Amino acid sequence: MTYEVVWNEKVKGDLAPLNKDDIRRIIEAVKERLVQDPIGLGKPLKGEFKGFYRFRVGVYRVIYAVDHAERRLIVLHVKHRKDAYR
Predict the structure, then answer these.
(1) What is the number of domains present in the chain?
(2) What value does the mean pLDDT of the chain take?
């Protein structure tokens, strides 16, 4: 059973500077793969980011939360790996 994807408003700004191929690859990975098993495919974050997960798409990281009760995957940020945890 899949999860519904909810994109945070900030994600649009995160994706804007990326090239079209990277944007397409990130969106497809979330909509086709991550929605199937957000806990199994992602890695839980630690410290101040506890409760959130990350999913790797090339050099980019999709930072997200999971609402199990509503079966929603909330995408919070998409960042290059060097900037993802700042």
Answers:
(1) 1
(2) 96
